[in-house]
From TrEMBL:
<protein>
    <recommendedName>
        <fullName>tRNA-binding domain-containing protein</fullName>
    </recommendedName>
</protein>
<dbReference type="GO" id="GO:0000049">
    <property type="term" value="F:tRNA binding"/>
</dbReference>
<feature type="domain" description="TRNA-binding">
    <location>
        <begin position="11"/>
        <end position="63"/>
    </location>
</feature>
<keyword id="KW-0820">tRNA-binding</keyword>
<dbReference type="InterPro" id="IPR002547">
    <property type="entry name" value="tRNA-bd_dom"/>
</dbReference>
<dbReference type="InterPro" id="IPR012340">
    <property type="entry name" value="NA-bd_OB-fold"/>
</dbReference>
<dbReference type="Pfam" id="PF01588">
    <property type="entry name" value="tRNA_bind"/>
</dbReference>
<keyword id="KW-0694">RNA-binding</keyword>
């Protein structure tokens, strides 16, 4: 999945300054020819759009999810 399919109608710069939920500290993977060390969490939206998972309140960057 590339960034455009992840964001649907949004542009990548729309995520600047936004906290997103990610999985880190797992083995790097080759995804579409790129080395990926971070998995951005998302859920299916309307059509083929993906809704990026974000916290409801501001949290410390790097905080654990549970």
């Amino acid at each position: 999945m590339n960034m455009q399919s992840l964001l649907g109608q949004d542009a990548p710069q729309d995520l600047l300054g936004t906290q997103v939920c990610c999985v880190v500290n797992f083995a790097a993977r080759n995804i579409a020819g790129f080395c990926s060390e971070v998995l951005i969490l998302g859920a299916p939206g309307e059509g083929r759009d993906v809704i990026v998972v974000t916290p409801r309140s501001v949290v410390e960057n790097g905080a654990a999810l549970f």
